[in-house]
Amino acid sequence: MDDLLRALPKAELHVHLEGSIGPETLVELAPSLAVEDVRKRYVYNDFRGFLDAYKWVNGYLRTPAGYALITRRLLERLESEGVVHAEINISAGVIVWKNQDVDAMFEAVAEEAARHPVSTLFIFDAVRQFGVGAAWAVARHAAKWAGNGVAAFGIGGDELAIPLSEFQEVFDFARSRGLRLVPHAGETGGPDEVREAVNRGAHRIGHGIAAAQDAGVMDLLRERDIPLEVCISSNLCTGVVATLDQHPVRRLWDAGVPIVLNSDDPPMFHTTLLNEYRIAAQQFGFAPNELRRLAENSLRYSFRTGDPTRTSGMV
Ligand SMILES: [Zn+2]
Fold first, then answer.
1. Is the pTM of the predicted complex or chain greater than 0.90?
2. What residues are paired with 152 via a beta bridge?
3. Catalytic residue (choose from 187, 193, 196, 276)
4. Which of 75, 95, 160, 253 has the smallest set of CB atoms within 10 Å of its CB?
């Protein structure tokens, strides 16, 4: 099974650079830490606990060399999983909040990524609860790098903090600069958050699993061909689904909603991209031809094509 999954050409479209730091890599960054201490921090049972751990990890990212190191480790792992292309979220909103130099950090990341065989594009992520002003700062940074390694503007964090509608002008600005829009929505929030994300111009939606609760929202995604970036283990670890068998991945797929499998923050959710495909096969009965279609989706819905209004076509 693993050989079959590894051999599938596929893209990782929803992985956070700062959430991809395994305990060993964090100790490389911060030798005063012990691997066991990091492992203890990577245990939580709700979304708030996860956000606290994510913030803690970010505190150890202080230099361009640190960002380059975590990029290298992430790409090494993705390559070992048969990933040919990755679209990697960078929490630019956190870098701005830390008063660090976004351009210097991104230059180091992009330089490292260029050395690697896995092709990459980057998504600059704002943090929803930091507010509209902070999101503007991220969008302006993203615009500076648009077409030069950065393909999209995203917004993550606590989706219940501030309505997406308040970010409309930021989204419009990002779009006008050729950036695609990839908000997290319908993860801790309900199906209306997914509808809202579509209405605000989302090209893909981070998580979006709450769509399964509303046939109208599923119709909308299908008609507009907007994929959900589904991250099964993440949803379980943050408690947004109570048990694995309650996860709606199979219902979404059977309803014809476009989906792509992703790992989100793999070591923080004790998973890998291959493991997400394995879960789809073993827990949700995805047959080999369906796994192949999921892998094809990951390439089809990537932003490697030059057209920001992407509607079709393998890359
Ligand atoms: Zn995410």
1. yes
2. 123, 180
3. 187
4. 160
- Give the DSSP letter string of 190-230: -HHHHHHHHHTT-SSEEE-GGGGG-HHHHHHHHHHT--EEE
What CATH topology corresponds to 2-300? TIM Barrel (3.20.20)
Residue in 97, 32, 24 with CA at minimum distance from that of residue 58: 97
Interatomic CA distance for residues 226 and 218, integer angstroms: 10
Q: Please choose, from the candidates 301, 306, 137, the residue with its C-alpha nearest in 3D space to the C-alpha of residue 314.
A: 301
The 10s digit of each residue's pLDDT in 72-88 is 999 999 999 999 999 99
Each residue of 48-60: pLDDT tens digit? 899 899 999 999 9
Whole-angstrom distance, CA of residue 39 vs CA of residue 30: 14
Cα(200) to ligand 1 centroid in Å equals: 18
Distance from Cα 115 to the centre of ligand 1, integer Å: 25
Q: Output the CA torsion 216→125→79→300 (10° steps).
A: 40
